[in-house]
Design a protein that fits this description.
Blueprint lengths: L1 E3 L8 E4 L2 E4 L1 H16 L3 E8 L3 E11 L4 E3 L30 H20 L14
Helix pairs in contact: 1-2
């Protein structure tokens, strides 16, 4: 998947002589990426790369087997900017994102990175990420 920064701002560092040098914001997104698999046992992370204005990563969602995790093969991942709004027992429609899904992981990841970056640059509430992601 790929996630871009808001307005494609070069926020995470710079490329010099073909090599990416992370700044403090880039180090935050890298650290939080790898920390995610410790927190969220339903995901397995593979290759990951931080670029100046976006990140690339491979995420595998696992489902719980009887005694162990098994990858969900061929399961739809559903890129979404807004969570679906299903009706539940004729109640008011509420935001809902399927737990332990790619969308839930991305939402949590983007949120924690945004909070830490904005705390560092003293800009609470500032937009860090572009809406959506590319699976």
């Amino acid at each position: 998947m790929t996630i871009c920064t808001y307005n494609r701002e070069c926020l995470f560092g710079e490329v010099v002589d073909g090599e990416m040098y992370l700044n403090n914001f880039g180090k935050i997104v890298e650290k939080e990426w790898w920390k995610s698999s410790e927190i969220r046992k339903e995901i397995e992370l593979d290759a990951f790369r931080v670029m100046p204005n976006h990140i690339h990563g491979i995420v595998m969602i696992k489902e719980i087997g009887q005694n162990h995790f098994q990858p969900v093969v061929g399961a739809p991942v559903g890129a979404q900017g807004l969570a679906p709004l299903p009706l539940r027992n004729n109640e008011i429609r509420r935001l809902y994102r399927k737990p332990k899904s790619l969308s839930s992981f991305i939402a949590g990841y983007k949120s924690v990175c945004k909070t830490k970056i904005n705390n560092l640059r003293n800009t609470p509430g500032a937009t860090v990420w572009q809406r959506n992601f590319t699976p």
